Amino acid sequence: xxxxxxxxxxxxxxxxxxxxxxxxxxxxxxxxxxxxxxxxxxxxxxxxxxxxxxxxxxxxxxxxxxxxxxxxxxxxxxxxxxxxxxxxxxxxxxxxxxxxxxxxxxxxxxxxxxxxxxxxxxxxxxxxxxxxxxxxxxxxxxxxxxxxxxxxxxxxxxxxxxxxxxxxxxxxxxxxxxxx
Length: 180
What we know:
This protein is an alpha/beta fold. The protein has helices at about 10-30, 40-50, and strands at about 5-10, 60, 65, 70-75, 80, 85, 90-95, 100, 105, 110, 120-125, 125-130, 135, 140, 145, 150-155, 160, 170.
């Protein structure tokens, strides 16, 4: 079985996901207005959002956004700066000692390109980030991407392809690929 997912909108699976998104949106709304010094309140809300306690040494500065939460896998000593978004329905894994700059986005879901299909289906694939990776401010990681150990994703980069270990990737220029 492939890691790619295709979910029919107007299905029971999609409705269950939509219900979870509403619950998690309420929880992250509460999380993002807590006083920062309320560590126990943040820990309790993160446990409800993620379905388990945060691993040892994980630091997350609010505001923090996720749409599902249950498929966000954080290893120990992960650092997530302010205003990051994790659309994790298809799964996101951040390895040990990953650092994420402010306003980074990890997007595991989308829609088919075909205009007739995009209102009928939700597509997605997991994101896997290996150990000791640095994701720069405002970077966007797209569905199905794997980022190798010790890699650096530059600020503002849009990552649509796998990143080899111990490499630097840059760039965010949009390019017309095809027309219809």
